[in-house]
Amino acid sequence: MTDAIDPLILNVLYACMGGFLTLLFMWLGCRVFSHIVSFSIPEQLAAGNIAVGLMIMGIFIGIGTAMGLVIGLGLN
Questions:
Q1: How far apart are CA 59 and CA 57, in angstroms?
Q2: SS3 content of the chain, % helix, strand, coil (to 5)
Q3: What was the pLDDT predicted at 3?
Q4: Residue 22: CB atoms within 10 Å
């Protein structure tokens, strides 16, 4: 089936699907972690808690890197 589709279109489709999956897993990871900790992440961010912001940044970077590697290695 992939022989009938232009490789350029197929790569764009893979990139779009990968971006969507990355955003989905980042959102899911933040929601799961929000249930684990004993404080409200949105309230702490609104109050200017830098430590919570750095924690969320670490979650997003970690999940984004992991998903990027999975998607990138899957294109072989």
A1: 5
A2: 80, 0, 20
A3: 65
A4: 19
> Which two tokens mark 30?
């933040």
- The pLDDT of residue 46 is 94
Q: How far apart are CA 56 and CA 17, in angstroms?
A: 23
Distances (CA, A) of 37 to 7, 44, 47, 55, 57: 44, 12, 17, 11, 16
CA 3 to chain CA centroid, nearest Å: 30
| Orientation of helix 7-36 relative to helix 50-74, angle to 10° | 150
Is there a contact between 22 and 64 (Cβ–Cβ < 8 Å)? yes
pTM above 0.70, yes or no: no
3-state secondary structure of 3: coil
How far apart are alpha carbons 45 and 34 in whole angstroms?
Answer: 12
Q: How confident is the model at residue 2 (pLDDT cuts 50, 70, 90)?
A: low
